[in-house]
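Subject: for your reference before the review

Hello V.,

The reviewers asked for a structural picture of the protein, and I figured it would be easier to keep everything in one thread rather than splitting it across files. Below is the amino acid sequence we used in the manuscript, unchanged from the supplementary table.
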Amino acid sequence: MLPGSMRSLTAVEQFLDERAHRFLERAPAGGLRWKLAEFLVFGLKQAWACIFGALLLAVIFGARLWYPDGAALARNDFLTLAAVVIQVVMVATRLETLRELRVIVLFHLVGTVMELFKTDVGSWSYEADGVLRVGAVPLFSGFMYAAVGSYMVRVYRLFDLRFARYPRRWITALVALGIYVNFFSHHYIFDFRWVLLAAVILVFGRCVMHFRVFRRSFRMPLLAAFLLVALFIWIAENIATWSHAWLYPSQLNGWHLVSLDKLLSWFLLMIISVVLVAWVYKPLPPEEGLTGARLPAKAKRSD
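And here is what came back from the structure prediction:
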């Protein structure tokens, strides 16, 4: 982490970071044990970045298995209240900063608008129970988009992300706007998703993401990172639809895996996500700052 940067750790993360480094610094800088330590830290950081989405998905999964039929509180309303509690607890315990919360609220609003439209045209549907809803959309649905936003902003600072040859932000904003509009317009006119995919490859194809795990920085093509995150969202989507959080029309008569075609939709959604985060956390190139520096124990935390 960078001293004094906007990506500084929250209070809980600072506590965990100090203790993790005390343990990991005993690992030799080479050999199998060192590689295993790097892999372990990578997995733990990813899990920590996913904490909002993981908690929400666990509640959705648990409600499918154990929430009683005929309960006075509708299941959808329970999921909404649970999502609100998770969000409040994360901010109150400083697992999430106020700066990050602003980004997450933006994801929430962008996602809810899409939900209202998509349910109206029949792309997917929710159970019709509960009162905490807007039209046919239960309010917990916006938190699922917020979970993506939470992951994006947390992974951005946990791995001290840097970007070589990141495209101009106004160009990425135009691509993201085109993707967002196409999610609506393809119901009425030509579906431009393959054209947009080509635009994404053209704009982001040369961009390389640099990220720090423990002692070393690693590199990955940004498009590969988009695809990996989209794959994990698709897996989470299968868990959510199995739990009947929502269903696609083809699943109404019996659940089955979500079509792999949805991977393209999630891949394109990642572009919107990255662009939204990039307008709050300006992408920095690897040569700016001390990418490998640790955050001092007394470094000032963000919001």
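For the response letter, the relevant points are probably these. The first helix runs from residue 11 to 24. Confidence is low (pLDDT under 50) at residues 1-6, 289-303.

Happy to draft the paragraph if you're swamped.

O.
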